[in-house]
Amino acid sequence: MPFIQMEAGKYTKEQKEKLISGFTKLASETLGIPEDKFIVLLKENELDNWGTGGKMLSKVLAEQ
Questions:
Q1: C-alpha dihedral over 26, 30, 34, 38, to 10 degrees?
Q2: Is the pLDDT of residue 9 over 90?
Q3: Does the active-site annotation cover 34?
Q4: Residue 39 to residue 54: CA distance in whole angstroms
């Protein structure tokens, strides 16, 4: 079974539904594999666990 994974910050339930549906549909159309064969995993991470430019992402976003 094809496996799709995305890691990012927190998602709303609505965003999760759209991502899972969209990833599955696009991959199915692109690869010619039925949608029911795909597994999608969304991994949520706290913004304090990410860093960019030597700073925690939560601080970078707060500064913007």
A1: -60
A2: no
A3: no
A4: 34
Instruction: Tally the residues of the chain.
Output: 64
Q: How crowded is the C-beta side of 29, counted as CA atoms within 13 Å?
A: 6
The C-alpha atoms of residue 43 and residue 24 are separated, in whole angstroms, by 16
d(CA 1, CA 42): 16
Q: Which residue among the candidates 1, 2, 16, 20 is catalytic per the annotation?
A: 2
Do β-strands 3-8 and 39-44 pair in parallel, antiparallel, or remain unpaired? parallel
Can you tell me which residue has the tokens 């860093």? 51
**What is this structure's pTM?**
0.80
Task: State the pLDDT at residue 61.
Answer: 92
